[in-house]
Amino acid sequence: MAATLVLGVFITLWVGVRASLAVTHLSAAAHAVQDAETASDDPLALASVLPTVQNETSAARELTNDPIWSLSETLPWIGPQLAALAATSRALDDAVSGGIAPLASAASGLSTDALRPQGGVFDTGTIAALEPAARTASTQLHTAAGELSAIDDRPLLGPLRDGVTRARDLVDRAANAADALHRAALLIPTMLGADGPRSYLVLFQNNAEWRSLGGIVGALAQVDTDGGRIALVDQASTADFPPGTDPPVVDLSEEVRNLFDTRPARYIQNVTQVPDFTVGAPIAREMWRHLRGRDVDGVIAIDPVALGYILGATGPVTLPTGDQLTADNAVPLLLQEVYQRYADPAQQDEFFRAACAAVFAALADGRADPGRLIEALDRAGSEGRLLLWNADAGSQAVLDGTTLQGRLPTTDAVQTTFGVYFDDGTGSKMDYYLRPSVDVAWCGQDSAALSVTLRNDAPDPRTLSSYVTGGGEYGVPVGEVLTGVYVYLPAGARLEDHSSTGTGAPAGFAGGTEQGRQVLKWSVQLAPGQQAHLEVRASTPRTTRLDAKVTPTISGPLIGQEIAGCDAGEP
What we know:
This is Peptide synthetase. The chain is α+β, with helices and mostly antiparallel strands. It has helices at about 1-40, 50-65, 65-70, 80-105, 125-130, 130-150, 160-190, 255-260, 275-290, 305-315, 330-340, 345-365, 370-380, 395, 465-470, and strands at about 200-205, 215-225, 230-235, 300, 315-320, 325, 385-390, 415-425, 435-440, 445-455, 480-490, 495-500, 510-515, 515-525, 530-540, 545-550, 560, 565-570.
């Protein structure tokens, strides 16, 4: 008994001391990363602390990897704590040594300034050279992320559980960043013409008149690339296109026609009405071919909010009118003030063209800070404000699973996702004043709820031009806003119930299906100061995450009111 007691005390001290030291090493690694991030906005500055971080994670791994520790992992209560600490140390060390360190070594001779064009030419070889290391890093980091996700945190003490959660978040972010870098290193050189001339059609969406993916297409530009050089070769507005192509330029599926008629394939303004950019982009490409006689290699969509993000990297640009377009005024200037200043749509179109050309010139001239530009594009992509489609199947496959593809939301064993898409029915620019609010929640084991609230915050319509209000041309009284809200249920879900309340005109409901998803259409009309609320419930197996993919508006969807009797979701 004495020997057993002594042995127990020895094991306790051995494991306790090593556990304490392991936690100290992991904390030191975390502090080193945080200090480097605080000291510089340049992501490459983190490379300077990687040897320190690697030494700390390696030490933590060594301390939690011996026979006595492994034996102690089989004990009740304390065993899961030790197993979790060992697994976390091992995963973090693998992430640093097998993923981040090799990538940092490959990028050691690269600075963000190397990503600026020199003499108007981007160095595509420098970008492409990062691909092998980025691929290896992505693989290693995703493996480490999987190991951390496999840790059962239910029996863990609070501080340890929090540490495991922070480690998961850190490695997940690193894995996603490495994956994005790998895809970029594969795709960007080709898009910049490293393998021969390429051409892209850029669609500028107007969020003041909603469509499912953002807004109507109000202006277009063709950008050509060759050998790393970018050129703006053509621009157009919606006025340059025929007012409704008949027959449609492409055949739409019966499901799409039942929901949106043939308008997406007849009007350039409506190519983003279908909430799947892989459907709308080829339509835009075909319409451009009809108009200009040119086939482009891809289509890009962007909105004024994303332009504002980009202007944060380039700095202000000066327009021919003398206006300064900045990160702060891009949205109000392009979506509100231009309509107050110019009554003639042709003058509005010219203003938009000038703004697009000025921002493009700033990018092509290398005026953007590369680090801030990467952050701006990443933010725009994550919010669905930057979309990309390639006609080449191989290039398009590089984007599989990313937000840049603009596809319908996915539902799998981990995540359940609704789609909420707004479409203007007023024929106006009044959506600048419309405020959406969206929330989701679980209501039991196999039932999910979605709520949508719309509020019309427009001023006295007598202060607005008829072009903004629509002038009642399509039967909607001046100042009121008619909106079609398309709710795409999660794939495989079944509609249980839906209801609508509010102060607007009586709501209407319709429905259909698309790509294995049941769709509910809610039509709602609101005068200034009015709001309406929709609640939808659907039968679908409960998963870890529940969220909603929503049309990007000028402010983004707000978190809505709580859904009575349901658990909080993740909108």
